[in-house]
Amino acid sequence: xxxxxxxxxxxxxxxxxxxxxxxxxxxxxxxxxxxxxxxxxxxxxxxxxxxxxxxxxxxxxxxxxxxxxxxxxxxxxxxxxxxxxxxxxxxxxxxxxxxxxxxxxxxxxxxxxxxxxxxxxxxxxxxxxxxxxxxxxxxxxxxxxxxxxxxxxxxxxxxxxxxxxxxxxxxxxxxxxxxx
Length: 180
Ligand SMILES: CC(C)(COP(=O)(O)OP(=O)(O)OC[C@H]1O[C@@H](n2cnc3c(N)ncnc32)[C@H](O)[C@@H]1OP(=O)(O)O)[C@@H](O)C(=O)NCCC(=O)NCCS
What we know:
By secondary structure, the chain is of the alpha+beta class. Helices cover 27% and strands 33% of the residues.
């Protein structure tokens, strides 16, 4: 007896990114490299990181992160080139997760963001059975918005004065991807 629903996929539909790129789970040993990534000016501008993040803060986060969440890093030629993950909610929001990602300032535009998003979406759809992925993105972050729309995220609304960034309050877009 066979049916389509019981047939395992032969391989995940993940975009590979540049040659030599490895996507793997973030580990405790990534503390220093992740700290350096978070302290890059471009990375900080697109995220909610504060300047001068310490290795201790990063290691504490790595040690205490929710075990039902997924945290990935992108490694290019042995160097950490990006990170991404989702935080799986609980209770009546257990069908949903909040997503975030960032790529090293020197490696943007090479397809690494696409490869990380592909791995996250594959895990969310095919392994975590998540129905809703959500995120916020600054309204002027065109590459990120383009990336999210490419993966089926839709614009849901604007958060006015969402966060303080480089001396000014910046608006953010709420985006969601729903697969019921
Ligand atoms: C947003 C970010 C993750 C994208 O990662 P990336 O590795 O550069 O993305 P990719 O190379 O895979 O490109 C993604 C898409 O953005 C597009 N893009 C790049 N620059 C763009 C721009 N200025 N305007 C519009 N689209 C742009 C690319 O063409 C590509 O789309 P395509 O495949 O249709 O051509 C990366 O720029 C980043 O980390 N920025 C700093 C941190 C950040 O903003 N994180 C997001 C928080 S919400």
